[in-house]
Amino acid sequence: MQTANRDPVLLAWLDGFTEVVGRSIAWLVILMMAVQFAIVVMRYVFSLHSVVMQESVMYMHATVFMLGAAWTLRHDGHVRVDIFYRKLSARGRAWIDLLGTLLLLFPVTLFIAISSFGYVSSSWAILERSSDGGIPGVFLLKSLILVMMALLLLQGVAQVIRQVLILRGKAPGNTPDHDEVV
């Protein structure tokens, strides 16, 4: 099922899933801006305040951040010090990305998932609500921590597959598509 110019099915599926989630969640930014604009107009024009609307902006921001993390990883958008990285060959970059995924991404992601499981489950046990009378779904917001970890792990698997293909010479290497500003 694999040719020299095509990713394996699993890699294509994982990348496709990450793309769908990332592109879908990006539309939430527009809604978040509209709600924030409405909050400002309500407050300064009509002297009205809505805790639910204010909290909804926080929920949307958290959702964009947490569900967009895997998409950002897919597109190499996370912060990196690439003074040496960009000068390496495709194989050298593949080794750094592979080791970074195996030794940093996976352990940290699993640690956060395991550490936050009790935090999330205790929130679900009491169906935690906003203490300010806002959105009654704090437990749902906290659940995004585990969803983010799952999405990062899935994309991490895709990253490992991609780097192994590059190291085996069965996929083209990535070239950093951003310039350093010195």
TrEMBL record:
The chain crosses the membrane at residues 25-45, 57-73, 94-119, 139-161. It is a multi-pass membrane protein. It comes from Billgrantia bachuensis. This is TRAP transporter small permease protein. The keyword Zinc does not apply. Residues 32-164 form the Tripartite ATP-independent periplasmic transporters DctQ component domain. Belongs to the TRAP transporter small permease family. It is found in: Cell inner membrane. Keywords: Cell inner membrane, Cell membrane, Membrane, Transmembrane, Transmembrane helix, Transport. The complex comprises the extracytoplasmic solute receptor protein and the two transmembrane proteins. Part of the tripartite ATP-independent periplasmic (TRAP) transport system. It holds the Pfam family DctQ. It comes from the Bacteria. The keyword Chaperone does not apply.
